[in-house]
Amino acid sequence: MLDRYAIVLIRRPLNALASPLARLGVSANQISITGFVIGMLSLPLLALGQFEAALVCILLNRIMDGLDGAIARLKGITDCGGFLDITLDFIFYAAVVLGFALADPANHALAAATLLFAFMGTGSSFLAFAIMAGKRGIENPVYHHKSLYYLGGLTEGSETIGVFVLMCLWPHWFAPLAYGFAALCLITVLTRLWSGYHTLKS
């Protein structure tokens, strides 16, 4: 829901970072993989209860996720880069939730499983529509610079990172935050199913 506004705010600073990196020959895929490795460090850190350090890794991952797109727009967007970017993103999101489950299995495991269930719905609805939109040549007027169709919803990347930040700052609130965000994700799934089905049908 907030991604379209967040993109406007961060576009200029990301472009300022991307330009010198692109001139040095750094590729978008290199940034994607580096950001993924940094983000995955949050998994063991969360499991060990190092929530502040994990938050740093999560935020760095998200900065680099925006940076790889900025570099790709300078050098040329590719299908393989888009595939790599979205795949690593989904793995990273799941890893963060798993990290909280490992930190306190007795109190976090069920909430984490519920949130991962909801993530499965948002991820599958997002990717399935992108495949069909690609087959039909449907373009998103809001995210036209992306390599695949970004189907919006109540819970997008901005909201997901926002709730991860809250979880790291107040880990004892993980369960209610996870259940609440899972409910919002399920609303997103329902709206995507309705809008996606009728868009493709028409």
TrEMBL record:
Entry's Gene Ontology molecular function annotations: transferase activity
Organism of provenance: Aeromonas bivalvium
Family matches, as PROSITE patterns: CDP_ALCOHOL_P_TRANSF
Keywords in alphabetical order: Membrane, Transferase, Transmembrane, Transmembrane helix
Pfam families for the chain: CDP-OH_P_transf (PF01066)
Top-level EC class: transferase
Transmembrane segments: 33-61, 82-103, 109-135, 147-167, 173-194
Alphabetized Gene3D superfamilies for the sequence: 1.20.120.1760
Protein name: CDP-alcohol phosphatidyltransferase family protein
EC number: 2.7.8.-
Similarity-based family: Belongs to the CDP-alcohol phosphatidyltransferase class-I family.
